[in-house]
Amino acid sequence: MLQIGDALISLDVVERNFICNLDACKGACCIEGDAGAPITEEEHTILKKLLPEVWNDLTPAAQKVIEEQGVAYVDEEGDLVTSIVNDKDCVFTCYGSDGMCMCAIEKAYREGRVSFYKPISCHLYPVRLTRYPSFTAVNYHRWKICKAAEVLGRKEGVKVYQFLREPLIRCFGEKWYDELQQTAEVYLRQKEEGTL
Ligand code: SF4
Questions:
Q1: Are residues 149 and 97 in the same domain?
Q2: Nearest to 13 by CA among 185, 146, 139
Q3: Is the CB of 24 under 6 A from ligand 1?
Q4: Is the CB of 100 inside a 6 Å radius of any atom of ligand 1?
Q5: Are 145 and 97 in a shared domain?
Q6: Which residue of 12, 39, 101, 142 has the lowest C-beta tally within 10 Å?
Q7: Is ligand 1 within 6 A of the CB of residue 25?
């Protein structure tokens, strides 16, 4: 475990390799799993506001779910999460002509239609944050649908925290990330030299 500020970072985040391999997974994290993506109350408000901008990109089934229960719900663990279709697909999933799953919010952002990129939990995936009163746990969520991402990350020599530089800075700031990078480099060097 490494500590930067009040964040406790699991060693998996600095030791494991990862680069999303969309050719292999087709963006499956948008449609797999048994709950939606965790969001904050603030993000919930933003999603409700930007809904008209993404509405036409959503599937009819997703539109129906949103009309019935809104863009989010509280899951079994008590977390506020995006609504899902068929007990698994995020309502904000849209599909490219090649069958690739995309986030309709990210698509609208890239097309300049909205100024919100996407919920931070999606941007940070496969890292998950858990907030406690005195610290934040930063963990790598290992999932078999991302297997090809580990293989690609290993091939390119990219660690989880390096792949997620942008969302980690969005969450914790640039200074925090620089400190993580330096601490991770020292840790990995010492591990390699057997001097830990
Ligand atoms: S997080 Fe996993 S499933 Fe999602 S795009 Fe990356 S590799 Fe694919």
A1: no
A2: 139
A3: no
A4: no
A5: no
A6: 142
A7: yes
